[in-house]
Amino acid sequence: LEKHAFDLRDALGDTLHALGLRATEKGLELACQVQSDVPDRLLGDLDRFRQVLVNLIGNAVKFTEQGEVVLEVRLQPDRRDDACLHFLIRDTGIGIAPDKQAEIFESFTQAENSTTRTYGGTGLGLAICSQLVKMMDGKIWLESEEGAGSTFHFTARFGLGPDSPGAIPVAPESLHQLRVLVIDDNETSRNILGDMLRNWKMSPSLAAGGAEGLEMLQSRQSGEEAFQLILLDVMMPGMDGIEVVHQVRKEFGDQTPPILVLSSPGQLSSTKDLARYGVHRNVTKPIKQSELLVDAIMQVFELATRNESGSRASRVTPRPSAIPPMKILLAEDGQINQIVATTILQERGHSVTLARNGREALDAFGRGQFDAILMD
Q: Which spans in the chain are helix H?
């Protein structure tokens, strides 16, 4: 395994965003909750770690038809100088029969023939995950109830990077006690946002839908406890986010607090029209803490820190690469490996053309010039 410094929360956010479109297409909520005591700056093999996450979360999305897929990260009690983290991937999918659970991490084991025909199998993915987790000085296991969903667990050990224990982005004091109304119909996402805001010493109030959110606004906007910011999910049953914005603007006019909308990949055909609806910014779900705080909330209140060139300072330190950017043809038929390889290559500045089989690879090769070809 290689060892590089990386920011855990940003790495998780980037990985989930890569999987977000597939979840959105199936109508699933994809969420991530990192406990506040989990260190952020870690030392480890980010590529192998991401491969485990993409396999497990990708399988959870594949085998879930409705509901949600949630990644949770906890810090394991430990007396060593490094960090042992516990990752839980919970879904509301089809579950796994008890007699299949013991062998699910073995090579080529499938849950059931009928399941494989319907959803596709996991192939070598889980067996590879098991080996990678062992290499990271961890273990992997699962809890599952057929018809009710599964929770895959794994632990992994990481070194503590420089500036750790800076566990979470820190809000400036001027945002402490900021009164924020969160409107989101998904209970898990709503609670995650509430925890995030409380960790920044803000004061969130949670509403389970547009009608409840409007009632809370009506009861408080004329007093000293008026809300100062609204976080609003776009896709909600009954009254969606855009309709809520219309109602709020109609009732409160210029007294409407700033509004940030939360949308999953592919839910908004364009963000250009948001301003005319009275929306200040769109934040893509699953929420990355740095994007919500630094890119959205602090921007709205003009508190974002800027470097000497005037651009917002980035929290991510790019990994140095001795290879200049290249045009790469990637031939790979596995969806999980496509995501992993494309993400890694693009992070290093390369341009990737994806071919899903040999015929597509030959066609792409005939149409363009490439510096390198990676082929399964």
A: 8-25, 46-62, 98-101, 113-119, 125-135, 187-199, 210-220, 241-252, 289-290, 298-300, 335-347, 358-367
